[in-house]
Amino acid sequence: MERLQRSLNYNTWMIEIESFTSPFELQATGLSSNLCLSKVPRDVISKYEVEAVNAEETVEALMKRKISDGQVLENEFFYIINLNTIVKKFEEWESALPRVKPFFAMKCNPNIAIIRTLASLGANFDCASKTEIQTILGCGVSSKRIIYANPCKMVSHIQYAKASNVEMMTFDNAAELTKIAEVYPEAKLVLRIITDDSQSICRFSTKFGAPLDKCPSLLALAKDLGLNVMGVSFHVGSGCMNPQSFCSAIKNAHAIFKKAEEYGFNMTLLDLGGGWPGTGYEGISFSEVAEAIRPLIDELFPENIEVIAEPGRYFVAQSHTLAVNVYAKREVVHNGEKSFLYYINDGVYQSFNCIIFDHYSPKPLILNSANDRTELYRATIFGPTCDSMDCVNKDILMPEVEVGDWLYFRNMGAYSVAAASPFNGFKSCPTLFYIH
Questions:
Q1: What is the mean pLDDT of the chain?
Q2: pLDDT (tens digit per residue) in 374-429
Q3: Domains contained in the chain, CATH given
Q4: Coil, strand, or helix at residue 369?
Q5: Which burial class, exposed, middle or buried, applies to 139 when counting CB atoms under 10 A from its CB (0-12, 13-18, 19+)?
Q6: How far apart are CA 37 and CA 22, in angstroms?
C-alpha cells in the first residue's frame, strides 16, 4: 500500500511539473512562432547556431534526439536554452507593467545570446561591476541603457564607468557619496533605501540600503558635495513571496521623493529593483505582483517620473532545461528497505550551485522512458566531486534508474551557469543548445 501511494505521489508530481512547463507551444501565450522567431536577432541565430524546432517537438524529444545523434560528447551534461521563452517573458512584462522599463540583472545569467536578444527587444541592463559593464558595452548596447546598481563600488570601477559614460549609479552611505564626489561628480545618483525583506528567500537589507531615518542626512551631504541625486531605488530581496513588500517599498520611496524636494533635488526616477518571480513554483506569480503595484505607481508617481526595475530570474529561469547523466549507482538496504545512491555528472559546484546560493530545490525528471517503472524508492543524488556536500537531492522518492540513464531538470536558467566552478577538476562550462 505504501509503495502504491508512493507511485501515485510521483505520478501526481510529474503531472504538476508538466502543467507548469509545456512543450514549445506558443499558442497559449497568444504569440505565434513567426512572431517569436522575428524577435530573436538574426546574428544571434547565426552565431549560436540556434535551431528552429518544430512546435510539436517536446523538450524531452529534443534532448533524446541530441543524445542519439551524437551531439553530446562522452555523456556530458548539457542545456537546452529556449530563446522564445525570453521573448514571451518580455512581452508579458510590457503587457503587465507598461510604465516599468526592465533593466536585466545580468548577474543572474550573463549569457551573451540572452543579452543580445533582450537588448534587441528593448530591455536595458543592471550591472554591478566593471566586467559586467564591459560585457554589455561589448554587445553594442549604449551606456545610456545601463544602471550601475551596486551601492558600494571600487574606485577603479567608478573611474571605468565615468570613462564609459555610464551615468546612473546607486549609493546608500556617506562614504560612497564622498568617493563619487572625488571621482565622478557628474554621475546621476540613485539613493537605495532599505526595505522590509522578511518575506523574501534571499534578503539583502543586511548588506545594502539606507535606513529611512538616515536618508535626510545623506541628501544633505549630497547637496553639500554638489552631487545630483535624481532617484530612489530599493530591492525587496530575491524570491519575494508577498506583493505587499513591493507596495510598502514604493510608498517609502515616495516619502523619500518628497523629502528630497526639500533639499532642492528634482527626482525623476523610481527603481523597483529585483525580486521578481520567474516560475510558477515560488508561491507567488509575476501577475500578482504587477496587479498589486500598477495602480499604486500611477497613484503616487506622475507620468513624468521614469519607472524602471531590475528583473533577473523573471526573464531566464524558465528558459533553461538541464540534462545530466547517471554515471554511477549504489544500492543500499536498511531495515529490509531498499534505497539508491545515484551519481550524476553535474553538481552543486557547477549548475546546481543554485541550491546553495539561491535556495532552489531542483526536481529530477527521468528522460528515459519510465512507463514500466512505477515502483518508487528513496534516492539521494550526488554530484561528481569528492565533497560530500555535493548533493543535489536527498532522500527523495523516484523510480529506479540505471547507470547510463539521463535525468533532466527544468527552470535552471537563473543563478546556475553564472556561478559554476571547475572545482575538483570537473567541467564547469556545459554544452549549450539554443532553440527557437
A1: 88
A2: 889 999 999 999 999 999 999 999 999 999 999 999 999 999 999 899 999 988 88
A3: 2-81+319-435 (2.40.37.10), 110-311 (3.20.20.10)
A4: coil
A5: middle
A6: 18
- Cβ 117 vs Cβ 87: under 8 Å: yes
Catalytic residues: 386
User: Which set of grid coordinates corresponds to residue 320?
Assistant: 533553461
Given the DSSP bridges, would you call strands 269-271 and 320-334 parallel, antiparallel or unpaired? unpaired
Cα separation, 257 vs 230, in Å, equals 9
245 CB-side CA count, 13 A: 24
- Quote the CA–CA distance of 180 and 188 in Å, as a whole number: 10
Return d(Cα 58, Cα 75) in angstroms, integer: 21
Q: Is residue 146 within a helix (H) or strand (E), and if so which, with residue range? A: strand 146-148
Q: Give the dihedral sign, CA 248/252/255/260.
A: negative
Its pTM stands at: 0.88
Tell me the pLDDT tens digit for each residue of 330-362. Answer: 999 988 899 999 999 999 999 999 998 888 899
Question: Quick check: 36 and 84 in contact, CB under 8 A?
Answer: yes
* Residue 122 region by backbone torsions, left for phi larger than 0, else alpha for psi between -120 and 50, else beta: left
- Residue 210 C-alpha cell reads as 539606507
